Amino acid sequence: MTPRGDESAATRPGHTSRRSVLAAMGTLPVLVAAPPAARAAGTPSAAAAEVVVDPFAERQTIRGFGGMNHTAWIDDLTPAQRDTAFGDGEGQMGFSVLRIPVHENRADWSGEVATARRAVEHGATVIASPWNPPSHMVETFVRGDQTDARRLRHDMYGAYAQHLNEFHAFMRDNGVDLHAVSVQNEPDYAHDWTWWTPQEMIRFLRENAGSIGTRIIAPESFQYVKSFSDPILNDPQALANLDILGAHLYGTRYEDFPYPLFEEKGRGKELWMTEVYHPNSSDSADLWPQALEVGEHIHHALVNAEFQAYVWWYIRRSYGPMREDGRISKRGANMVHFSRFVRPGYVRVDATPRPRSGVYVSAYKGGGSEIVIVAVNKGSSPVSQPFTLGDGAASRVWSWVTDADRNLAPQGAAGVSNGSFTGALPARSVTTFVTG
């Protein structure tokens, strides 16, 4: 039986599940103008080092934030849930990336059309990943103690490229122009789907990927294993047919987020984080302050790893950004602090990333002089946080806050004086500031 994603992972015999990997690795604001009652009673606001934002020190261009829809494993999003996920107004999530599967059976392709088409109507980018080729293209082999491991037959590489091309054409004919298609979902964690070696993926990229009519993502390693992607970066012919280096971050340590070889050899390529849930799939997405782990995780993915996209696993799930009833969860609110305000095409710029212990800050430049700042305060005390904007162009700043009692609550506007303002970051909160 085909596994239903993470639900089966905890019960798969004979190999490590995502959940056990995460367990072993460990779990890696209002404005100053607000009245005093907005602060925790009897708790002074701790001062923090200044955050300096330099709009001229540009880093990566952001392509978007989003999640997965997989109608063969869980029910499709409803029309209202599609609008909640991909709309960018109040009460909506502002997701700008949808990931869908390339089903091995053509009969399942139509199930992905409705949500993908609505996402496109909202301006979202759609990418697709295969778990398995069609069954006639697969052979079994012995891999360690797995006697029924699967791989793509070596004489079927051309047919497999055609399969991916046909899916691209099918979606295009149904109103969805795929931005990119992956060679394989998690080729290095494939006990329940199809294994690939780096050498096999290099061969496919060299000889077959060029015939596919859209951008190519690879290798989508389960844990951002550099030994899988290094050989691709070091092979000029394979790299020539790669457009997006995709990675998953299940249990990946923050210290392993940077990728110097990609910085050296990935010029002209993009770097996307195409799947994760964090910190686990067992707890409710509304558990607080645990949900703040999501805000910190996104911060490190954008600042330390310099990913251009951040894509969750299932959009709607008890542990995901959207609850089963269609409402935005606390984990989802952390994502929305980025996804609704940091839009595709915005550029991350330098900002003091950690002005004090437990506070994480990143900044982004939008159209005109707009600057978006996202600040996560994981500490148990509120923080009075000074900000200085390098260009001094802003005159006002607006903010939204999520904490134990509020989700994306607008806090109004306050003035910016000589490029500086002070924001109050409530205890255990995430706050987005937007200047104008």
What is the strand and helix layout of this fold?
Blueprint: H1 6-9, H2 18-25, E1 30-31, E2 46-47, E3 51-61, E4 64-68, H3 79-86, E5 97-102, H4 113-121, E6 125-130, E7 138-143, E8 146-152, H5 157-173, E9 180-182, E10 194-195, H6 198-207, E11 215-221, H7 226-233, H8 236-240, E12 244-248, H9 260-265, E13 270-275, H10 292-303, E14 309-314, H11 330-339, E15 347-351, E16 359-365, E17 371-377, E18 383-389, E19 396-402, E20 409-415, E21 420-425, E22 429-435
Parallel strand pairs: 2-18, 3-18, 4-5, 4-14, 5-6, 6-9, 8-10, 9-11, 11-12, 12-13, 13-14
Antiparallel strand pairs: 1-21, 3-15, 7-8, 15-16, 16-17, 17-22, 18-21, 19-20, 19-22
Description:
- This protein is an alpha/beta fold and 436 residues long.
- The protein contains eleven helices and 22 strands.
- Strand 13, helix 10 and strand 14 form a beta-alpha-beta unit.
- The radius of gyration is 22 Å and the shape is globular.
- The N terminus is likely disordered.
Give a count of the beta strands, DSSP E runs of length 2 or more.
22
- Radius of gyration, in Å, reads 22 Å
Distance between the termini: 54 Å
Unreliable spans are 1-5, 8-42
Mean pLDDT: 91
The major pleated sheet works out as: 11 strands, mixed
Work out the strand percent. 25-35%
Which structural category fits the helices and strands? alpha/beta
Task: Report helical residue fraction.
Answer: 10-25%
Overall, the morphology is: globular
- Supply the number of helical segments: 11
What does this entry show, briefly?
The chain is an alpha/beta fold and 436 residues long. It has helices spanning 6-9, 18-25, 79-86, 113-121, 157-173, 198-207, 226-233, 236-240, 260-265, 292-303, 330-339, and strands spanning 30-31, 46-47, 51-61, 64-68, 97-102, 125-130, 138-143, 146-152, 180-182, 194-195, 215-221, 244-248, 270-275, 309-314, 347-351, 359-365, 371-377, 383-389, 396-402, 409-415, 420-425, 429-435.
